[in-house]
């Protein structure tokens, strides 16, 4: 069964970049007569905004999107909020621990930065300071748990970007799966959840392309099926700036409040993705019915200055 998902973080309102990804993922599932899953990535409690998850659900439905499984409709793989799935992540950590793949790390960010190699995609490559230290030693602070990565090159084919290659040791280093404050890392949670929910195709923004090799490594280490990946270009503001959830002009609820129709937003997003030649207003279901062949666009899309 062809299954895609959309997994927003409720740290703010649904902005156009999120709607762009959701529409692409939903369209793939509908065209394949598959299933679409909605999951809430709310692991980071301090950053989660009360009511944001419900607003995102409402905005997605207003746009005309629907799903077979999600936090508001339940399903066989519930719960669909990551904050309620800690037991799943602990089992995965236990599996990795049994393989002697985890170790505690009590390094501070400053200590890592002093000896780390150049950042990869904005992240400093962990230099392995705690890799060979006694795990029973007194800790300077509550430790994070890192996974030992092998000296391995990961190869995969992105459905849009084509062949990709990454060296885990050189470009990532041993990465954190559980933070010192007890929060589970995105890299672990997304792998466990995508596997548990049977996701076959992961559709997301290309700002997450650099995470893919790490996630493939974890899928394989946990003996889980590796999905296919499709990384979409980012959505930018009218002048090329990154979108901000606090900018109401770039959020779905803000556009709704300004009187912009749902089919107007869907039409422009679909055209920007390469799903349609025209950016004329169209309902989501009608767009899928009329969709024959399309070609994803690989360049970032700038939102219109006026709607």
Description:
- There is one protein chain.
- It is elongated and about 65 Å long.
- It is of the alpha/beta class and 307 residues long.
- It has 10 helices and 13 strands.
- Helix 1 crosses helix 9.
- A 3-stranded antiparallel sheet has the order 3-6-9. Strands 1-2 form a two-stranded parallel ribbon.
Strand tally: 13
Q: How many domain regions?
A: 1
CA-based shape: elongated
CATH architecture: 3-Layer(aba) Sandwich
Count of DSSP-assigned helices: 10
CATH superfamily, by name, is HUPs
Helix content: 25-40%
Specify Rg, calculated over alpha carbons. Answer: 20 Å
Task: Please state the average pLDDT score.
Answer: 94
Strand content: 15-25%
Identify low-pLDDT runs: none
Q: Quote the distance from N terminus to C terminus.
A: 37 Å
Structural class label: alpha/beta
CATH class: Alpha Beta
Q: Report the order of strands and helices.
A: EHEHHEHEEEEEHEHEHEEHHHE
Order of strands across the main sheet:
3-6-9
Q: What is the assembly state of the chains in this entry?
A: single chain
CATH topology name: Rossmann fold
Note the main sheet: 3 strands, antiparallel
Summarize the structure.
The protein has ten helices and 13 strands.
Features:
3-stranded antiparallel sheet; 307 residues; elongated; alpha/beta; Rossmann fold; 31% helix
Task: Furnish the topology, listing elements before pairings.
Elements: E1 3-6, H1 16-31, E2 35-38, H2 52-62, H3 86-98, E3 102-105, H4 109-115, E4 117-120, E5 123-125, E6 144-147, E7 153-158, E8 162-167, H5 168-171, E9 175-178, H6 186-196, E10 201-205, H7 212-221, E11 228-232, E12 235-236, H8 252-257, H9 262-273, H10 284-289, E13 301-302
Parallel strand pairs: 1-2, 10-11, 12-13
Antiparallel strand pairs: 3-6, 4-5, 6-9, 7-8
């Amino acid at each position: 069964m062809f299954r895609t998902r959309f997994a927003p973080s409720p740290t703010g309102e649904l902005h156009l970049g999120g709607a762009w990804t959701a529409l692409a993922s939903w369209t793939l599932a509908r065209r394949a007569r598959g299933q679409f899953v909605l999951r809430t990535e709310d692991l980071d409690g301090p950053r989660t905004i009360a009511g944001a998850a419900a607003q995102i659900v409402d905005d997605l439905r207003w746009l005309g999107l629907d799903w077979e499984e999600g936090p508001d409709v339940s399903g066989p793989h519930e719960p669909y909020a990551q904050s309620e799935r800690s037991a799943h992540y602990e089992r995965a950590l236990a599996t990795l621990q049994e393989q002697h793949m985890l170790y505690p790390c009590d390094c501070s960010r400053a200590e890592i930065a002093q000896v780390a190699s150049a950042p990869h995609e904005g992240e400093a490559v962990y230099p392995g300071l705690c890799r060979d230290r006694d795990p029973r030693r007194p800790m300077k602070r509550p430790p994070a748990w890192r996974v030992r990565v092998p000296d391995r090159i990961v190869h995969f084919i992105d459905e849009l970007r084509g062949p990709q290659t990454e060296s885990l040791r050189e470009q990532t280093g041993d990465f954190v799966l559980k933070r010192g404050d007890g929060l589970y890392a995105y890299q672990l949670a997304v792998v466990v959840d995508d596997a548990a929910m049977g996701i076959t195709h992961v559709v997301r923004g290309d700002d997450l392309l650099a995470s893919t090799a790490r996630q493939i490594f974890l899928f394989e280490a946990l003996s889980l099926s590796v999905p296919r990946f499709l990384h979409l270009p980012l959505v930018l503001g009218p002048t090329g700036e990154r979108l901000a959830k606090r900018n109401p002009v770039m959020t779905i609820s803000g556009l709704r409040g300004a009187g912009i129709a749902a089919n107007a937003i869907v039409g422009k997003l679909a055209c920007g993705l390469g799903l349609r030649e025209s950016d004329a207003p169209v309902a989501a279901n009608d767009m899928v019915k009329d969709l024959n062949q399309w070609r994803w666009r690989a360049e970032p899309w700038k939102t219109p200055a006026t709607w």
